[in-house]
Amino acid sequence: MLESEYQEQNRFFLNMGPQHPSTHGVLLIVLEMNGEYVLDPQPVLGFIHRMHEKMGESRPCPGFMPNTGRMDYVCALPYNHGYVSLIERKAGIEVPERAEYIRVITSELNRIASHLLWLGAYLLDLGAFTPILYGFDDREHILDILESVTGSRLTYSYYRFGGVCQDIDEKFVERTRAFIKRLRKRYGIYEKLVTKNIIFIKRTENIGIVSPDMALRYGMTGPNLRGSGISYDIRKNEPYSVYPEFDFEVPVGRQGDCLDRYMVRVREIEQCLRIIEQALDRLPEGPIRSKVPKNIKLSPGDCNFAVEAARGELSYYLIGDGTSTPYRLKVRVPSYSNLSCLPELGRGILLPDLVSILGSFDLVIPEIDR
Amino acid sequence: METISTLPPELIRMVISAIIVITFLFLNAIMMGYAERKIAGHVQRRPGPMEVGSHGILQMIIDGIKLVAKELIIPFNVDRTLFRVAPLLSFTPVILPFLVIPFSEKLQARDLNMGLIFIVTMGSVNVMACLVGGWGSNNKYSMFGAMRAVAQAISYEVPILLSILAVILMCNTFSLKGIVGAQQKIWFVFLQPVAFLIYVVAGLAETNRAPFDLPEAESELTAGFHTEYSGMGFSLFFLGEYTNMFIVASVATVLFLGGWHGPHLPYGEYLGVVWFLLKVYFLLFLMIMVRWTYPRVRFDQLLNFSWKYLVPFSLANLLITAVVVKL
Fold this sequence. Notes:
By secondary structure, chain A is α+β, with helices and mostly antiparallel strands. Chain A has 16 helices and nine strands. Chain A has helices at 3-9, 52-57, 65-71, 77-91, 97-125, 130-150, 170-195, 198-204, 212-217, 223-227, 234-237, 258-281, 334-340, 342-345, 351-360, 365-369, and strands at residues 11-16, 28-34, 37-44, 159-160, 163-164, 301-309, 312-320, 328-332, 349-350. Chain B folds into two domains: 1-69; 77-326, no CATH class. The longest helix of chain B has 35 residues, at 9-43.
């Protein structure tokens, strides 16, 4: 029998998901396999489609705020940020500087929380149970801090058109500074437990290499793109809010393997801390919310706004028709594009490597399905 | 009393031994389960079970009752015979080695002169449970787990045997009692450190413990060969795993850590069991710590590690031992 015939006869399908521990949510990947080798992985989406975009088109624009925090529940504040900035740009609303600072501080805190959760979940995919609890321990402090000012712990809708809904106080600043100190001390633990762990390196180095060309072809963004060595960060490339005022770096990887994507995220945590520190130092006094008309009219014509969410470029696109309800609202989420390269990347690899690659992309399924 | 005295004493001895062994086995599984969860908790900076009893000490008993009370769900289209036999297959071979383990000088059910071979054989039977359970479950994930278990067992029994052989060469006996007796002056761990390390690593793989828990790798294969098992079926696998760990640790104690030898105790021929258990549980503690520290290796890495490192090193070790003993 020919080798190819033999291969053909031993092909079988394996449904990974929608309730598989490593797909983190309800993602189904139909794997065509030969033994433990994956021949063709095809993601199947749509299990938790909730029509967020349609909801945005069927109610006045403030009513969509809570939805934004529920698309990516791991890192909700940048989603809030993108939406409020979009409406502000469309309706020409000025935002006080203090409000922008508060937005940056809380968004960056949320980004750290997201990266910490990802770190734990990724290690869980690789079979180490302990790091997720260390990550949760640190993340808990962030959630407490954010809860004290936003009132919720996960699905925030804290920002308002023209500002934020509640001012931060001295205690918030104090707690955030204490947290920054604490997290910096914890780097050593993560380094010993994860980064220098020989098994971890063996499971991630040279696995799932995304070349820069491939990353661009699939429209990957965020740490996944930066892992491939392309320095592209909306906060630097299309600065919004008060990000241009801060001094921070955009970490990039060398060759785009899972280890690079891991390292980029870990190094990004430090950059987030730097941004928060600078913002706290320069926090201006003043109002936190400008005067906004009760009924915001969205003028005819389109408008776009992109922010850097924890997983990559998040952009909102809106077409107004003169009423306060958007005619069309489109959300471009990063995870969708990041996932789309899986069929090409996952050809001919081992099943455990597929789990490792999938974990390294930091996918949030409710964000993909919306 | 009369009826008892008419029975052959050998039979009474066997029954008593069996009762003691099975009681000990359940107690051990409960203790290990509790220790595992407590240690995992403290490794992860959380208290672990705290609710049932003082510091959650009764948690495992409650869990055991829960598992016994649960229905054994048999999925559609499975091979019913194999599906039911597999948990028993995982449980039975791990009871039998207790026959020959010398807990102390006098606490040993039977001193077989091929005791070590007996234990190793029973260890190999154990893998049949994974194969049968995985095959019979009618589930692709279980099948993966079963195949991995077999490949893993085959490649890790070789270094185990080779490292054991090095010890055998030094004391010229397969009797466990004889091996412990030969360590009166110095434990073999000091004479055979390489063999000890190889045995411990291969033993981790043999018992399917993390970082070598590939047959059940929950992030890849959901739960591997026992994906479809619930209730008693699952708990027998669980009991089997913990007892197997105990046996691997006891063999390591017998072969390398001097068995019951330790500072002198009154009634030493019986109370040596204290030293024996201390050493065994120290090894088990190490195994638990390793599990909660390391990620899982990949399957081909695991096999490569065995064939490229463990087997050559143990062969070299065996050769050197043979030459030195001959001189």
